[in-house]
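Trying the structure run again after the queue cleared.
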Amino acid sequence: IREAEALNRAVERARAGLSVKARGGRTVSKLVLEYRRSPAWAKLRPATQRDYAATFLRIEAKWGGTQAAAFTRPILREWYETLYRENGKWIAQHDLRVFSVLFGYGELRGWVNVNPATRLKMETPAPRDRVLSWEEFDALCAAAEDLGLAGMRLAIAVAWYQGQRQADVLA
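Done. Tokens:
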């Protein structure tokens, strides 16, 4: 029965795209698994869950077998600087913020005494202001008309003039 239950847990982890690299202790991979089973995860919007899941895979690739309690602010600051150099400030800040969410959950569960991913003095990227050009807007509307999708053309226009976020438009 124990072996069957262990195999079922392994299948569940595989289906969730998770891997546990170390069997003993409270590793980052196990913390990710616990967080994804928690009510906090269930309350997240699907888009946020997808974003966190992708980020967790990157975090696990680097830190999966490391004990959660082994992390310190200097270690995470060094990783932030590495990510900053290799991937830019957007990815660096994003990944560390998601790691902070994970460690916040670990702190509530007693896996870490203090969230080491807080107060890292990360550079805040300038807000993005990329919007469609008028030419792109016209091309979208023309494509919708060419396909006979008058409702889609209207939806594009409404989203354009209201300035809604993608998630709001989809909802």
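The mean pLDDT is 86. Worth checking whether this holds up in the mutant runs.
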